[in-house]
Amino acid sequence: MKSTVAFTAASLLALGGSAEPIKRTAGTKYGLPLVQDKALVNSVHLDDLLGCAQDLEDIAYATSRRNRVHGTDGHLNSVKYFVEQLKSLGDYYDISQQEFTTEATIESRASLTIAGETIDAGGFSFGNNGTWTDTPLVTVADLGCNAEDHPATLEGAVALIARGDCTFVQKITLAGEKGAVGAIIYNNADFGVAAGTLGGVNDLIPVGGISRADGLRLVEQIGNGTAPTSSGEFWQYIANVTSYNVVASSRHGDANNVLFLGAHSDSVEAGPGINDNGSGSCGLLTIARQLAKWRTNNQVRFAWWTAEEEGLLGSEHYVNIASEPELDKVRLYLNFDMIASPNYVLGIYDGDGSSFNLSGPAGSAEAEKLFEEWYKSEGLPFVGSEFNGRSDYGPFLDKGVPCGGLDTGADGIKTEEEVALFGGTAGIWHDPNYHSARDNVTNLNLDAFKATSRAIAHAVATYGRSWEGFPARNVTSLTRRSSSNKYNYRSTPRKSRHV
Fold first, then answer.
1. Taking phi first (over 0 means left), then psi (-120 to 50 degrees means alpha), and beta for anything else, what does residue 379 get?
2. pLDDT (tens digit per residue) in 339-391
3. Using CA atoms, how far apart are residues 114 and 134, in angstroms rounded to an integer?
């Protein structure tokens, strides 16, 4: 469950090969047996999960950009792959491709030198292009969330700001209002450079991200009276692109009582995105394929969302164009984002708010309990994941839909307590390869991948059979959550368990 896992993944792939579709005879399927929990769970195999993951990596690496950013060939071919796999099952699913057009960061580059020293730096999605040369670096107080944190000396300078508490947009807007020509945000985690999205095209000052260690070192230098100068170049190519959500609904089952499961299918620009989120995508595809051997009493719907990495845009588009009566038929939405992190935890969305004091609509607590009881039955430890809407379940929460889900950690820091439960290394990210070119097949944790996927299968079998004990949707009294805060744009680590 530690460093040997990556070797095991590579070894299995060398022996295995890509996922093969389950061959089905076309035509309506009569007489299928009702889905059985143990049988569906036991049909989830690592060979299938890894075969799918390898296919997605191959799709990415077959393109010049070597990624699966939404709207690019890498993502469009990923969409084609999911559709073809689902169509190979005959007519078990109604399959639709929901077209969506928006801006996306297609390519970028970043360079930064301070006092002549090259600093590892990265850009932010939708950051503006800009260069500066030999420009003073000025520290912003606290976390840069208030106007008074930004000194008058920022006029004509570059702002050095800590990550945390408020949005990136808020920080650099305030810096720009004081006359800063650029901003550098340093991370609040010990591993990696600060990175994220500004949520869309804007007219803000250019911004880059650096590591916590470099940021604190520069703060100390400035505090000691040194006045380092910086030179930076941050460039992005942003274009309008079209991509697709893939939605597959079982023809069996009550369409007025839908179990809805989703995972995003796109990656960031830096790499193929195999844990983030090929893992969740492949977990769902593997289960969708196996479910085609069974009938269900309740409709089961799967979705592979586009443009999550640009700010949950694909799932947000889905809920925004769906009618309220259609959304009211969804008894539960379950989300799966990053389920094979190398330095993993087994995280369950904290639907009852007992861990993080953020609860969801009625039914969210029951979803959490289902996963807790299943992990207990398997002798597996688990922890709560903050129910903050920072993945594709956020738009469903905003519409009052009960939600749940699983993850294995992203850029949250692993604690000693978590090491005692799961092994691994304390003091570094749950996924040290998060949003990098190293997010590939060989760095998946197989134990986490299998355990989480089997838990998903358990949920599908349970709710596919019956909603017994699950609260009814009281749609006339739903309190819709405010959607004014786009959770994905917050400057706290996205998809992390810790704020």
1. left
2. 999 999 999 999 999 999 999 999 999 999 999 999 999 999 999 999 999 89
3. 8
Could you give the CA distance from residue 222 to residue 224 in angstroms, rounded to a whole number?
Answer: 5
Q: Note the pLDDT tens digit of each residue in 42-75.
A: 999 999 999 999 999 999 999 999 999 999 999 9
Catalytic residue among 269, 308, 310, 366: 308
- With contact defined as beta carbons under 8 Å apart, do 91 and 251 qualify? yes
403-407 and 347-349 strand pairing: antiparallel
Q: List pLDDT tens digits, range 271-302.
A: 999 999 999 999 999 999 999 999 999 999 99
Question: Which residue reads 């959770």 in tokens?
Answer: 487
In Å, how far are 45, 91, 465 from 39, measured between CA atoms? 12, 22, 13
**Nearest in space to 193 (alpha carbons), one of 167, 215, 174:** 215
| 201-236 per-residue burial string, b: 16 or more CB within 10 A, e: under 16 | eeebbbbbbbbbebbeebbebbeeeeebbbbbbbbb
Tokens of 381: 């430890």
Q: Which residue has the tokens 């990556």?
A: 6
**Which residue type, as a one-letter code, is found at position 87?**
K
State which amino acid sits at residue 287.
I
Cα–Cα distances (Å) from 414 to 61, 142, 242, 446, in that order, read 30, 25, 37, 18
pLDDT of residue 490: 32
How much is the pTM?
Answer: 0.83
Give the count of alpha carbons within 13 A of 128, CB side only: 16
Using one digit for the tens of pLDDT, what is the confidence trace for 72-86?
Answer: 999 999 999 999 999
Average pLDDT, whole number, for the chain? 89
In this prediction, residue 239 carries a pLDDT of 86
Confidence of residue 189 (pLDDT cuts 50, 70, 90): confident
Do the Cβ atoms of 23 and 84 come closer than 8 Å?
A: no
Q: Residue 316 catalytic?
A: no
